[in-house]
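Lab meeting, item 3. Inverse folding demo.
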């Protein structure tokens, strides 16, 4: 009987500790920094290229504009991700909170379980680009907050995922071959053709 009583106390203590995590650690902050061997404009263009999101954002499936103007502050998007093999797709609403081209973008991702805010900053150093993230996750409800806090404290889950994503972005930018800023093509006019024929 004493064993069962002590076991009950242990279980109760674990439950209280779990709930306390959600109370005292209501949000999780983390980030990662990379330096790529490409100029600022090219690094920015690759990171903002929606056709390449699945190459560096783990689990990304699709993004769809649902209101506002594309890539403008205040615009909203439906984002679908898959947390992992055998798990159902997860839907979030992304809102562009702040955007300054070649400098930073701040995004808010809202879902049933949590609110996720991320700022990605860009700066150039000697022809290379430094990209850093500042992210925060806030669970909706004490149980969710406790679960998210446990995942980060025990496994570093959010920090590790951020690092994996941005290291993949680093490879993608360094290996980029897409010309996002092609030189303008000069149009040949009839006068030019006449002059050429005369020469």
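The presenter then showed the designed sequence:
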């Amino acid at each position: 009987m004493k064993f069962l009583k002590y076991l009950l106390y242990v279980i109760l203590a674990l439950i209280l500790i779990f709930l306390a995590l959600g109370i005292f650690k209501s949000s999780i902050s983390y980030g990662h920094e990379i330096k790529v061997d490409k100029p600022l404009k090219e690094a920015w263009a690759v990171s903002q290229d929606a056709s390449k999101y699945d190459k560096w954002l783990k689990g990304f499936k699709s993004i769809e504009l649902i209101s506002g103007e594309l890539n403008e502050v205040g615009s909203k998007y439906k984002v679908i991700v898959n947390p992992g093999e055998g798990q159902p797709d997860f839907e979030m609403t992304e809102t562009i909170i702040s955007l300054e081209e070649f400098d930073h973008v701040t995004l808010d991702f809202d879902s049933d379980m949590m609110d996720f805010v991320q700022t990605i900053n860009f700066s150039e150093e000697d022809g290379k680009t430094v990209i850093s993230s500042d992210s925060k996750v806030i669970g909706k409800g004490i149980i969710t907050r406790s679960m998210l806090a446990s995942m980060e404290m025990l496994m570093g889950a959010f920090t590790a995922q951020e690092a994996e994503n941005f290291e993949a972005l680093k490879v993608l930018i360094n290996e980029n071959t897409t010309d996002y800023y092609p030189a303008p093509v000069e149009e040949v006019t009839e006068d030019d053709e006449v002059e050429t024929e005369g020469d």
